[in-house]
Design a protein that fits this description.
Blueprint: H1 7-19, E1 21-34, E2 41-53, H2 79-89, E3 96-100, H3 111-120, H4 125-135, E4 144-146
Parallel strand pairs: 1-3
Antiparallel strand pairs: 1-2, 3-4
Length: 150
């Protein structure tokens, strides 16, 4: 979030910056904590509807952007993104609170080095492939758990 910005305002801005779409938030899906990830990440995930703009990826974020039906999500989707999508599809209304134990693998260079390579546009395929191998899958037992009771 930028200084002076609410979580909802940040979600709207990020959607525009990363996808080219203008959105109106329709609800809070839940909170997702990744305290062992880079920067002790905690995310507030919102549901939204498109109100304008044109779907296009931000060049430093992705090569393409598109919509998928729930039953055909990409196999290479990072495992920690799957739970918020499932919670949204299930109609969760702000009651999803998950701990997601995502860690940077020893098999990759340190995060600042990888992000520098990505920023310069020279991220080797070997790093991309290892990232997909590590994270492009279903979560494994013990990698995430719900933090509140149903």
């Amino acid at each position: 979030m930028d200084t002076g910005e609410s979580a909802a305002q940040a979600a709207i801005r990020e959607a525009r910056e990363e996808t080219g779409l203008r959105v109106a938030l329709t609800g809070l899906i839940g909170l997702y904590a990744m305290p062992h990830w880079i920067g002790n990440t905690h995310s507030a995930i919102f549901a939204a509807r498109v109100i304008g703009g044109e779907l296009r990826p931000h060049p430093s974020e992705a090569r393409e952007a598109r919509f998928f039906p729930m039953d055909t999500l990409p196999d290479y989707l990072n495992w920690w993104h799957r739970q918020p999508i499932r919670d949204a599809a299930a109609g969760m209304g702000g009651s999803a609170v998950w701990y997601q134990d995502v860690r940077w693998p020893d098999s990759l260079p340190p995060p600042p080095d990888v992000f520098d390579l990505r920023h310069r546009g020279v991220l080797p395929l070997s790093i991309i492939d290892e990232g997909l191998r590590q994270w492009g899958r279903e979560p494994q037992p013990g990698e995430q758990w719900k933090e509140i009771e149903d």
